[in-house]
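#structure-requests
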Amino acid sequence: MTIKSINNRTSKIEIDLTGPEGNAYALLGYVKHLGRQLGYSADDRDIITKKMMSGDYENLLTVFDEYFGEIVDLYI
């Protein structure tokens, strides 16, 4: 088994928005965990979280995609 850095992923993480991972709270949890793995500071993760929570679900997805779209594909 080889453990690689998330920065060296060859495929994207897939999140089904119609399932439990598509829940707003689950996506906010991804910000905490993925953000830490990608080297975002705690302050940066807080800013992203606040931006995500500043509007409706569509805004939450847009902000999430802005920061994590390179490594995460969202599906409906």
